[in-house]
Write a structure and sequence with these properties.
heterodimer, A: about 0% strand, globular, B: MetI-like fold, about 0% strand, cell membrane (chain B), Phosphate_Transport_Permease (chain B), Phosphate transport system permease protein (chain B), MetI-like (chain B), phosphate transport (chain B)
Chain lengths: ~290, ~300
């Protein structure tokens, strides 16, 4: 066989591979959205799930997912900013910095079930928070923090050197330079990364089984008392999220319309991830235009 | 000359920033150490407090932790984890790398406009969704075409393949893009065909380390995935006889039993030992990646 023919065959094979992937991936998306969208309506996303009978919704689960996301972000953002700034601006080239980088690598590649086990032991048992939103939020922080630190560090490092040196030359201190010069320029990148990371935590399930729990108490959305067990805002109540709900109804199989509820919930998750992705791109571009002269 | 108070003031402001950021950074180290300490102390208790033999745990095939005496052979779980990981990598690596080359070298226009956004989106799709699709589409398909229950090692491999494909593809795209343009053009100018250039210059030389890292990261993801695998693999603790027999993995064993066992019991601790194995494998994957990236730079 001559080289020309080989080249042509190889090109054909590459096309075939790409087609297979496109078919599988598009098929998957289409399948989820097609089946799920038939199920999603106002009743589905606002009402509580049913036990043993059909027709339940995922209202509390959707709320739990969002609330958990907000709490996790409240913990992760300041810590992530701090860690990222340290690595980009202060970290000397030494063994300690190497250990920090190794830690980031380990934390970001740990299986989520292992993070869940760690959360079970530290937050649920040792701290005594039980299966609760707070335990779940801290477990999710373990995943999210390394991502955030990386995003912040990369965004800060991509700020042009001249801007930083101009600030130093004006006699402005390092910390003030970071706050007033570097962070505003890096902000679009940081926010884009944060929103993408948020999409990832939104669908996390394995780490939450043993931390946020697999049940959701009856919630009274008029009750805003943080310490009342029926209040949706109480951080010490157990909170089953959308992703956990999909898993639970499939493994328990108690309701007759498992398939429909899981279809709807899957589509909700995928749509949310989609919205996060689009929002991250759009918002980052918009902010960049607002903050710079371009 | 600035007054002493002013100097003190600026030192104080400067110090706050450094202290705050240093504390945040040290939290990363503390968390990592805490995870290793907690998981290891519980995981090792199986062998030191409950008297299970390490050899039995690693190579024993009988898993009956509630029997009298309990049997703690975790090999079926370990084997299951390795088979699904290697199996899915074998399927996903050629497809993912081939697609990455298609996206960068053969049709960058389609690659960037259509495939890149879809693949980025799929990286973010929750694993439970993959598991659920596997459960509702793949399992009936396998049952109808091969008989049996459908829940099987093969189902686990296929679900994981689809799950790690986006990861491997997008990392491979990055690796292929890093190949210097001059190198490719020199190869084409010397009369090499596109295939020869792709195979000899891109795959075998310039981006080999990057491609290997993409595969290993995909494998790490597959090895640690819990729910998607648990939903389709059948959860039968026995050494699998064929690709179509139901099996179990370390992650699915932990997922299913951690909630139903009494903390402190030998059974419960054995599950922590399985968690420790997962942790150790993560560290091994990281070491492999570091080793490859060092070799790649040299």
């Amino acid at each position: 066989m001559n080289t020309k023919a080989k080249d042509r065959i190889a090109t054909g094979v590459f096309y075939a591979m790409a087609m297979i992937i496109v078919a599988v991936l598009f098929g998957l998306l289409f399948y989820i959205l097609f089946h799920g969208l038939q199920r999603i309506d106002l009743q589905f996303i606002t009402s509580s799930p049913e036990f043993m009978k059909a027709g339940g919704g995922v209202g509390p689960q959707l709320f739990n997912s969002l609330y958990l996301l907000v709490l996790t972000m409240l913990i992760t953002l300041p810590l992530g900013l701090g860690g990222g700034i340290y690595l980009a601006e202060y970290a000397p080239k030494n063994k300690v910095t190497d250990v920090i980088r190794l830690s980031i690598e380990v934390l970001s590649s740990l299986p989520s079930i292992v993070v869940g086990l760690f959360g079970l032991m530290l937050f649920v048992n040792t701290m005594g928070w039980g299966y609760s939103i707070l335990s779940g939020a801290f477990a999710l922080t373990v995943f999210n923090l390394p991502l955030m630190v990386r995003v912040v560090e990369e965004s800060l490092s991509s700020v042009p050197r001249e801007q930083k040196e101009a600030s130093f030359a004006l006699g402005i201190t390092h910390w003030a330079t970071i706050r007033k010069v570097l962070l505003p320029v890096a902000l679009p990148g940081i926010l884009t990364g944060a929103i993408l990371a948020a999409g990832r935590i939104f669908g996390e399930a394995a780490a939450l089984l043993f931390t946020a729990g697999m049940s959701s108490p009856n919630l009274n959305f008029a009750n805003w008392n943080l310490l009342d067990p029926a209040s949706p805002l109480n951080p010490f109540r157990p909170a089953e999220t959308l992703a956990v709900h999909i898993w639970k109804i499939n493994s328990e199989g108690l309701i007759p319309d498992v398939r429909e509820v899981a279809d709807g919930a899957s589509a909700l998750l995928v749509i949310t991830v989609l919205v996060f992705n689009i929002a991250a791109r759009w918002f980052g571009k918009w902010l960049y235009r607002r903050l710079t002269a371009s | 000359m600035s007054s002493p108070t002013k100097q003190h003031d600026s030192w104080w402001k400067e110090g706050v920033g450094k202290v705050l950021t240093t504390v945040s950074a040290s939290i990363l180290i503390l968390t990592t150490l805490a995870i290793i300490y907690f998981i290891a102390s519980k995981g090792l208790a199986t062998f030191f407090s409950n008297g299970v033999s390490l050899v039995e745990f690693l190579i024993g095939t009988e898993w009956n932790p509630e029997g009298a005496p309990g049997q703690f052979g975790a090999l079926p779980f370990i084997l299951g984890s390795f088979i699904v990981t290697v199996g899915s990598a074998l399927l996903a690596a050629p497809l993912g790398i081939g697609t990455a080359i298609f996206m960068t070298e053969i049709s960058p226009r389609i690659g960037q406009k259509v495939m890149q956004p879809v693949i980025e989106l799929l990286v973010g799709i929750p694993s439970v969704v993959y598991g659920f699709i596997g459960l509702s589409v793949l399992i009936p398909f396998l049952r109808n075409s091969f008989g049996g229950v459908g829940f099987s090692i093969l189902a686990g491999i296929l679900v994981l393949t689809v799950m790690i494909l986006p990861t491997i593809t997008s990392l491979s795209v990055d690796a292929v893009k890093r190949v210097p343009r001059d190198l490719k053009e020199a190869s084409l100018a010397l009369g090499a065909t596109r295939w020869q250039t792709i195979w000899n210059i891109i795959v075998l030389r310039s981006s080999l380390p990057g491609l290997l890292m993409a595969i290993i990261l995909g494998m790490a993801r597959a090895f640690g995935e819990a729910l998607a695998v648990q939903m389709v693999i059948g959860n039968t603790t026995a050494i699998p006889k064929s690709l179509l027999s139901p099996s179990n993995t370390l992650t699915s064993g932990i997922t299913l039993n951690m909630g139903n066992t009494i903390p402190g019991s030998a059974y419960n601790n054995a599950l922590w030992s399985m968690g420790l194995l997962l942790l150790i494998m993560t560290l091994i994957f990281i070491l492999l990646i570091r080793w490859i990236s060092k070799r790649g730079q040299a």
